[in-house]
Structure formats: C-alpha cells, structure tokens
UniProtKB/TrEMBL annotation:
Coiled coil feature spans: none
Cross-referenced Pfam families: Hydrolase
Protein name per UniProt: Enolase-phosphatase E1
Highest taxon above the source species: Bacteria
Pathway participation: Amino-acid biosynthesis; L-methionine biosynthesis via salvage pathway; L-methionine from S-methyl-5-thio-alpha-D-ribose 1-phosphate: step 3/6; Amino-acid biosynthesis; L-methionine biosynthesis via salvage pathway; L-methionine from S-methyl-5-thio-alpha-D-ribose 1-phosphate: step 4/6
Subunit structure and binding partners: Monomer.
Known cofactor(s): Mg(2+)
The keyword Hydrolase is annotated on this UniProt entry: yes
Primary role: Bifunctional enzyme that catalyzes the enolization of 2,3-diketo-5-methylthiopentyl-1-phosphate (DK-MTP-1-P) into the intermediate 2-hydroxy-3-keto-5-methylthiopentenyl-1-phosphate (HK-MTPenyl-1-P), which is then dephosphorylated to form the acireductone 1,2-dihydroxy-3-keto-5-methylthiopentene (DHK-MTPene).
Keyword vocabulary terms for this entry: Amino-acid biosynthesis, Hydrolase, Magnesium, Metal-binding, Methionine biosynthesis
HAMAP family noted in UniProt: Salvage_MtnC (MF_01681)
The organism of origin for this protein: Saccharothrix yanglingensis
Catalytic activity: 5-methylsulfanyl-2,3-dioxopentyl phosphate + H2O = 1,2-dihydroxy-5-(methylsulfanyl)pent-1-en-3-one + phosphate
Species classification: Bacteria, Bacillati, Actinomycetota, Actinomycetes, Pseudonocardiales
C-alpha cells in the first residue's frame, strides 16, 4: 500500500520548457546583480563559495556568472546554481513575474491523492526555496498545503543515487520503503529509487525530452 507519493517536477508535473526556457531565461540576466546585491545573505555567500570550489574560479562576479551560465547551458544539476536560481525565482513568483503551470492531469491527481490520505512530497533538482515558490504561485492557486516535504540535491543528495532515496525514506519515517511510490520522467532516477526499495512509476509524456525513453522494468504511464 502506498503511504507516500514522491514527485519529480520537470517533465513529470510541468513541461520541461517551463524550466529550461521560461525560468532559465528569467534567472540568467539576474544572477550577477543578485550576487552583487545580496552579498551579505549567508545562502548567497555559501553558493558563491561552492561555485568557486567547484570551478576553480577566483575572479569577480563576471567570472562567476560565466561559470553559472555554462552550467545552465549544459543543464547541469549543480547545487549552488540551483540555490541561486531558487532565490531569484522565489522573488519572481512573489512579484508576479512568474506563474507555475502544470500538465492538465496534475492538479486533479494531486488533490485526489491528498483527499484519499496519501501523503505527498517532492524530490527535484531545483532548490527547496524554488520548489515552494513554484507551488505557491500557480495557475491553480497555492498548492503548498498539499505537500508535507520538499527534497533537493542539497538536503537529500543526487537524484540518480540510491542513497538519496534511502535518506528521504528516513526523513519521511517510512520503515518500509515499499510504501513510497516515486513518479519521474527520468529512467535513471527510477532505477535509483527502485534500488532503495521504493515503488516506481515512469511518466512518459509525449513531446517531453524523455518521453520516448525505455522505462523498463518500471510501470509506465502517460499521465498521472
């Protein structure tokens, strides 16, 4: 019996283009000004220190931004990049510049699970701050009350490693990992979750980057 449903976002709940085009285009020109204007913010200082450590860059903001833009171009799931993007998106959602949109089947499924007593959580490469802002400002209103936990690569670990799913199960208090079902559009993430003992469902949406991938041996659906 499923007690928890844990959900990926990009390509599973929302179109990949919303992240790689809309959100990335919003964050890209704002990274440099954000770093300069929020240098006293501990989260920004930590992210900048991590960028320097990972890249070896010792120069100023322009060099940092060049690294961040390179990671964005390659769609790298790098924690300090996600942290900075999340802060920028949080402001964008709060100011009404951004509004999250979902595939048509998503919100009815979330509400049905919640009404049936299934507990919901999110595991996305986007930062927790960005996730919360995303679900708080949607075309269907504030959906944050539906979710009990948010996980990212900072508080759980890489999405393609079984240890991350074991960590999440521990936080959720799930003594039997088989009571957790993970929905994702990325087979490698499903493999890692299955290795940790979770149930898995591949979401193969037509037109999405992973829609035509081989999801075997995971149960696969075209919508939630």
């Amino acid at each position: 019996m499923t007690e928890w449903v844990v959900l990926d976002i990009e390509g599973t709940l929302s179109a990949t283009d919303q992240v790689l085009v809309t959100l990335y285009d919003y964050a890209r020109p704002r990274l440099g000004p954000w770093i300069d204007e929020h240098g006293d913010d501990p989260a920004v200082r930590e992210a900048v220190a991590q960028v320097r450590e990972l890249s070896g860059v010792a120069g100023g903001t322009d060099e940092l931004v060049a690294v961040l833009h390179g990671w964005m171009d390659a769609d790298r799931k790098v924690t300090p990049l996600k942290a900075l993007q999340g802060l920028i998106w949080q402001r964008g959602y709060a100011e009404g510049d951004l509004v999250a949109e979902f595939f048509p089947d998503v919100v009815p499924a979330l509400r049905k699970w919640h009404d049936e007593g299934v507990r919901l959580a999110v595991f996305s490469s986007g930062s927790v701050a960005g996730q919360v802002a995303f679900f708080a400002h949607t075309t269907d209103g504030d959906l944050t009350p539906l979710f009990e936990h948010h996980f990212d690569t900072a508080n759980a670990g890489p999405k393609r490693e079984a240890s991350s799913y074991l960590e999440i199960a521990s936080v959720l208090g799930a003594e039997d990992p088989g009571t957790i079902t993970f929905y994702s559009d990325v087979p490698a993430e499903l493999h890692a979750a299955a290795e940790a003992g979770w149930r898995t469902v591949g979401v193969a949406r037509e037109g999405e980057p992973h829609g035509g991938d081989d999801f075997a041996p995971h149960r696969t659906v075209a919508a939630l």
